[in-house]
Write a structure and sequence with these properties.
It contains eleven helices and 21 strands. It starts with a strand and ends with a helix.
Length: 399
């Protein structure tokens, strides 16, 4: 894109000079002159009253994608078991497809996995594309990428969603590169723009300081990976259609072999499965401050979590961190103790069903997302909550 000035039209009003954010315009010979450091941002074009600033830029035309139909979900399975995030994405896909008037499809790859198709239909898939091949028993990048590329090119979906797991993060960029489309990674929310009918992909950006909304207007399918735990699963009554897609694979195409599978023991707890989470922030003070949170968690049959700073200080283990750089959770009850509520932390817990915030600062951002807020010292409130819950349990259950 080139920007220039028609000197015969310019009246040297200097409005373009004031509008240029890069100081790339100056007066020369009685008219404005564009310098080499111009970035072609277009700010000067909008302010010139004489239309003396011109450009050869032509607006990009949005292609016709009316033939692209369907919201697809990559149904990730490991060892014959579907990952939870796949079922969560099917729940969201139902919502997106409903707004678009389209259908939901699941893409399932593996070996001896045909029995999983019924589960995918139960959780919202109208169609399941099933690829069963011995070479797909274990995930291998080239094999999965090749087959999904073929499937996408043949059926041309509108939207394609994958979980932001280790496999999803490896597979999604490879597929997007093969089919020449954009990809938004680690989304925490998805919606449909009511005017344009395009997918709005929302994710934390700039270190979690802002929530960016990204739209892909110029290619299909619209691809995104979504963090586990941020969407809800929804079962859908009815029958689905299973399409057995014949996979043609040769070992020399795959280029890698799986010699041995070693299952690593899980470290610590799985916060994504917790119904109750008691989380602490800087206000807890130190590692000993988490003791009263553990007492409350024990009474409520919950788990203890914390913010990034509590992990960096060594107060709790890394696997207990909730937030943009930690785990994304969706418990029934989330009690935030001494947590200010920075956007990085809120991105990991704001989809909890009920949020209770305890903080001495009434202006803390955490109160903006809390269902109930208690402006008080957590060291007064939490022990009292524990005491009353214990008494209630004793009266009800005699324990």
């Amino acid at each position: 894109m080139t920007v220039w000035v028609e000197t015969d039209l310019c009246d040297a009003c200097k409005l373009c000079i004031k509008a240029c954010p890069y100081g790339a315009i100056e007066l020369k010979g009685g008219s404005a002159y564009i310098l080499e450091r111009c970035t072609s941002c277009g700010a000067c074009l909008e302010v010139c009253p004489k239309a003396a600033v011109l450009t050869d830029f032509k607006p990009r035309q949005i292609p016709d994608f009316s033939d692209r139909k369907g919201v697809w979900v990559f149904a990730e399975q490991r060892g014959g078991k579907l990952t939870r995030v796949s079922l969560e994405l099917l729940g969201k896909a139902q919502e997106l497809a409903g707004e678009l008037g389209q259908e939901v499809s699941a893409v399932l790859l593996g070996h001896q996995i045909s029995d999983l198709t019924a589960t995918l239909v139960e959780y919202g898939a109208d169609t399941v594309y099933c690829m069963d091949h011995e070479a797909l028993k274990h995930y291998r990048s080239n094999a999965y990428t090749k087959l999904i590329e073929e499937l996408v090119n043949q059926y041309q979906p509108n939207i394609f969603l994958l979980g932001a797991t280790h496999i999803g993060r490896d597979l999604a960029p490879r597929v997007s590169r093969r089919i020449a489309v954009g990809l938004t990674a680690d989304c925490t929310e998805l919606s449909i723009d009511s005017k344009e009918g395009i997918l709005l992909q929302i994710r934390p950006a700039f270190g979690g300081n802002v929530m960016a909304t990204i739209a892909n207007r110029y290619s299909r399918p619209q691809m995104a990976t979504v963090r586990p735990g941020v969407m809800e699963m929804h079962k859908k009554p009815g029958k689905g259609n299973v399409i057995e897609y014949k996979a043609v694979l040769f070992e020399n195409e795959i280029k890698t072999r799986v010699l041995k599978v070693v299952k690593e023991k899980k470290k610590g707890i799985d916060l994504s499965e917790a119904n109750v989470i008691i989380a602490g922030g800087r206000g807890v003070g130190d590692a000993n401050g988490f003791d009263i949170l553990r007492e409350l968690a024990e009474v409520m049959d919950g788990q203890v979590a914390g913010t990034r700073v509590t992990v960096e200080e060594g107060w709790i283990p890394p696997e207990n961190q909730v937030g943009q750089t930690g785990r994304t959770v969706r418990p029934e009850i989330y009690i935030a103790c001494g947590i200010s509520g920075a956007v990085q932390h809120r991105a990991g817990m704001m989809n909890s069903r009920y949020i209770i915030a305890i903080n001495t600062d009434s202006r803390a951002p955490i109160f903006q997302v809390a269902d109930w807020g208690i402006v008080a010292d957590l060291f007064d409130v939490v022990p009292e909550m524990t005491r009353q819950l214990k008494e209630a349990k004793e009266k009800t259950f005699g324990i």
